Amino acid sequence: MKALNQLKTFLRILDEYPADTPLGKFLPGFYRLNKQMGSTDRKVAGRLVYNYFRLGRALPALPPEERLMVAEFLCNTQSNSFLQHFKPEWAACIGFSINEKIALIKTTYSDFKLDEVFPWSAELSVEVNKDKFLRSFFIQPDLYIRVFRGHEAQVKAELNKADILFKDEGNGCLCLPNGTRLENILPRQQHLYEVQDYSSQQTANFFKPERWDKWWDACAASGGKSLLLHSLQPDIKLVVSDVRESILANLDERFHQAGLFKYQKKVLDLTQNPEQEMHDYAFDGIILDAPCSGSGTWGRTPEMISQFNPQRILFFQRLQQSIARNVAKYLKPGKALIYITCSAFKAENEDAVEFLTTELGLKLESQQILKGYERKADTMFVARLIRPE
Fold it and tell me: Which domain of life does the protein's organism represent (predicted)?
């Protein structure tokens, strides 16, 4: 009976879910309207709906409940009562490898194709391993935090005290199980850490700031890259900008919690020439964390696979070029522009570097796909380009 009720709840969520809304925003509202659901009910419902979307666009003709069974089998490594009730023969094989599971699914659904989970693999960046990337969608990413310098011992002690398993990735980066309720263990008011994905933290290796440099975080959003930059060199002069005034308010709060108080803030639409605001500025470094499809993060937001229109790749490519053209001219000769996306698409990555070099005259120093799919993290792209002297 419990498994049947869980299936009914899943189908209700799927029926009421508006396709243009992030699941992470929709589900809390659904739970508030259904107060009879206990914490276990909410946890199971969340697992089922997220796993369902992890199947991407595979087996599109199947009814939702059948697609859910396939997803539950592929996405879990330990048996659960739900799968045992509906698919006991699959539950008995839950420990199989992904390849073995796919082979077993094909005995029932011969038209299952891994390529259809994420059907744009031909658009992936050159360095992305297609098979590993596709299989990564069946695995929930881990939670990564960046511990503020000097607080590593305290944070580790608190995690050990709470019996939370974690892995030290170095440079203050800790890896924890997804869903860890850190707010119950490490109160935010103590300002001990930032939640930040492993790959995002690795972009700092490309910054190389020097003391008293003047840097511009051009598409700053909530300021994660600026905080990384500040952790490397607290004495930089920092300008941050974004087109969204509301998100810059979040940046203020985040900066103040991290002890960063000296910076300039500007609301700028960088698809337009910012000459009026920026005419007397020249920078030793520019971070362009460009708006993008976010395809490298869809392991955390798998609903995006079902919602994505591939025409958006061209939209983001043009947007990135427009912004880059208006940003790069404020870079001092001999200094670096750091181009970053959380995309796995070549058009937003290597092709963007081609534009930056051929159209804007920058010189590529280094570039890298940060292969988050190999370590339960986001997949990102970063390039360091120099303006010739």
Answer: Bacteria
